Amino acid sequence: MTKEENLHANTENSSVPDQEQDSRGHETIFPQEENGTESSDSSSSQNSEVDKLKNELQVMKDQWMRSEAENQNLRNRHKKELEDTRLYTVQKFARDIVEAAENLRRGIDSLPKPAENEDPMITKMREGFESTERSFLKILEKNGIKCEDPTGSPFDANKHQAMAEQPSDEHPQGTIIQSWTPTWTLNDRLLKPAMVVVAKSPENT
After folding, report:
1. Tens digit of pLDDT for each residue in 75-104?
2. Please, what are the domains in the chain?
3. Can you tell me the distance from the alpha carbon of 97 to that of 190, in angstroms, rounded to the nearest whole number?
4. Dist CA 126 CA 107 (whole Å)
5. Cys-Cys with 5: which of 1, 80, 109, 162 at CB 3.0–4.6 Å?
6. Region annotation Disordered: residue ranges (predicted)?
7. pTM, full prediction
8. Which residues are CB-neighbours of 168 under 8 A, at least 6 positions away?
């Protein structure tokens, strides 16, 4: 083989490794592309899982809030029922006490009117009853039970019970001219309405 032929052969042989290296280098690109795709798919899967967990957490949170609201409503309802029961018991007891106070007043009113020559025993009895009544009313007021004489005030159906009407030239129509019993309140709430006589115009008779 001549020198020129050897040179040509060496040149061809040296080019083969370069082609193989190029081929291997080109082939190494594919695994890199596959790894990038797998990484993208994995990231997308993780994001999807996170979103799913967030949704589940939100559902659990909503359920907890609804359950807490229902429990709070139940507690409030139970508290109101207890308060209503307590208030009903107190009102019933207060009405009984008020009835006793009214009976005491009727007893005082049934005594003879004060007179200069009245029996000293009657005077002492009246003074004793009136002193007892004052003490009784103070105790009631201390516990939130108050009475009010509505005589002279306008009739109010929310606080008064009209037992009769009476023609009057001295009072405007609808004015209370006589009260048989006072208006009773418990902690500023109506306990028992007053029984009253209301004035009406004479021309309406």
Report:
1. 999 898 888 788 778 889 999 999 999 999
2. 75-200 (2.30.22.10)
3. 15
4. 9
5. 1
6. 1-80, 147-175
7. 0.59
8. 175, 177, 199, 200, 202
pLDDT tens string 103-142: 999 999 998 888 888 889 989 999 999 999 999 999 999 9
Tell me the backbone φ, ψ of residue 182, rounded to 5 degrees: -80, 170
pLDDT, position 47: 81
Helix or strand run (H / E) with residue 112: none
**Cα–Cα dist 180/155, whole Å:** 14
Residues 6+ apart with CB under 8 A from 202: 167, 168, 169
